[in-house]
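Table 4 source record.
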Amino acid sequence: EDIVAKFEYTAPAGYTSASYAFTYQGEPTETKTATITEGKNTIEFAEANPARIGETIIVSLTLTGEGKEPVTDTYEFSVADYLKTLLTAAPSTFKEIKTQEQYVAMRTLAANLVNYSAKTQEYIGLEDTSSALLTTETVKGFVGDEQPADTDLAVGGEPTESDKYGFIGANLLLDGRVSVCFYFVAESKENLSLEIAFAVGSTATLTNIEEATEIAVKEGVTAYKAVLEGVSAIDMDKTFTAKLLSNGTAVGKEVTYSVKSYAHAMLSSKNDSMKSLALALYNYGVSAKSYVEAMEVTGTDVRLPETKTIDVTDDKYPASFVAEKAFSWAAVEGQSYAHSLVADGNGYMYTLTYNSMAVNASGDSNPDTSGDYYNTYRIVKLDMTGKVIGYTKTFVGAQYNGGYYWGGVEYFIPLWVKGGYVYSYNGDGKTVRIATTDITAKGVDYEVVDAIQFGTIEPKNVKAVVYNATQQKYAVYTLQTLYIFDETNLTEATRQQSVGINMVRMGGNDNNLYFVESTDNVYAPNITVYDWTGVKGTGIFISNKESLKNVKIQGITEYNGVVYYQLIGWSGGVNAVYKSDCSAAKKYDLNDYGLGKYLLNCDFETTASSLTNGWTKDGGSYIYNAIEKNGWVYEYRSCLVRFNPTDKTTVKSNLVVKKFDDENVAMFTYGDKVFVYDITNKVWKSLPLLFNADATATTEESLPIELGAYASSFRNIYVFEDTGNVAVFTGSKIVLLDSTGAEKAMYAVSTSDVSRMGGGKGGYIYYTTNAQGTKNPTVVVIDTKNGRRTTLTLPNVSQNPSNSKISSIFELNGTLCYSLFKWDGTTDSSNIQCVNLSNLKYAAPHKETEELTNAN
């Protein structure tokens, strides 16, 4: 009946009464009181206007109890923000959503409510601020355009001259809720009532009858009206019958009506905005009914894609920025290797400096002992230029589980700022804290207080913490898992999300959380961004003009739109902080989400001059397949190797799965592993993404993906980890499977025995057609979201094209790469050729994507 905002709160023991008031459109409501019980309670605001869903609703709440100090809190909410979440968040965000049908029905309802709001704004002359919530083509596609084919209106004949009672008609009133106004004539409203009979069998009696002075009628009778308040959205397609009662006896003729009747009548309206509003209202009702029906379906849970939306829109493109050194700083009293980095919002940042290793929480040193161990640290305060303001006395940090790592380089230890204090954990599992304003000299003392406990997570397993002062939330990272906790309830996480990145450092601000992989020789971070509901968003690619070795990223934070990350080095003692202003205007980075879209919307003429950053391996080492993950290229030559395109180094494993040279090797990456199919033994094997030299593979009993009917008929596989979809190339066709292994789409392709398929983030498939013996081989790009495809001609620099063929195709850092095996008669070689799109000739732009022309 209404757009209702429900606010849930937790009452501590001993509090028995709540008083609350709302502020909406700047106006406070009357204060109400309620009797409450310990635990969860709910209050509702039912006066939200569809035309003003962007208005902030502020609730002020005070709890009281005998002998208790009053507790007061406020909370801000808007319907628009809530609808945005419904339209963009991953299915797993919603605990009651169990099936894909329910997820679609929910988003359809949200989209139609947004459209209803927009059309209401248009009709009453307000600026349309609602349509901006419909951000993608998929979301816009949820907006219904159904038109009622007929009408339920049946007055039964208008009143005649002799009729003393009778209906004139009915109309809708659209304010904060949908109501029906019935117009009728009567001698008098004395003892007069209006009975409404609903299709479901219930009735309602209206006695709130008023004179309708706006209606002109014949002499001797008077026009009256009565309003049926609050027609439920799910009842907008249901009919109801109204009849007049005088002293309880039916008089006059009945009228049958429905919201559908109103929408049907408006189809012939000359007022376009009125017509649009009526249809938007009708489709809102249709979608509400469909949602209720979908939620009544029960059954087993299904695996839903972990993605905001399968659309790729311009604002989802990762931004690309360049880093510069902010400052270097010297070790503090012999302490080296800075761990963690956090800014306080007041122009200072804090880090932990490593001093020595210990074998227990008392700090006893024994550097030859392996296994569980501890490190000693100081908390250091710096200004934004790197000047050391002060630091604390040394304390023993949280315990590290398993393994001996020199200098604590691999060590994770949390450091966070909240309410004027900087916090960490010590070896006893307690919390170390110190006021930020107290760190003004060397060797300042700190406090040790009871541990801040997050759920059942042991402090030693907490790797990073970020506090959100605006939302009063904590983000807690344990190995590969993100938890979100409300400050008012640290016993139960509101969100748990697998991050699935190795060796992660986490930082952030009140808007976003930043995750960056911290592996050896990573000095230019690819940042994965999550919001504070745990939903994965866009990425940030930061390039570094310097080329550094023997370094790791040990901390990341943000201040005034500038991302800072800390590098440590174990060759030359690097302790440096780099920064990148990510508040600047976005640039598109084609490495993530954009490459396929760029190819689909631009025409190119490719030449050898388009090639860049390739690499060659002479001596007949044929590349049977190659794929990319996190900037690494995994090539299957005589065995599986991991290649670093930056410094051209190779790590070779012991994984050998081929029997004959003409056999394809199926490979894919998922999470933190690379999977390779063993042709001889007909089994899948895996290695960690960052496998070491001579690493031995593990045989997998089951896969993290579902191949359905294609579990034994594949040539190439590509996994879209953001949606859960899987592309399978059988050799004669390409099929797209959903996360359950069910077939979503099939693409007929022109192939040969040597055709190969790869994929790209954002739902793009690449496959080669005439892959052998061609001067200019071609690749077809398919957008799996809509089936669009285009063909791109690739350059071939082989001296003898007839003696060469393509064996793989993949994306890497904004380039389209493919492996080319050449046998020129003297020296065989395999090389990776990368097409640099910024060098390609732009020939025929599509109007809607002109902004992508210089995108690299």
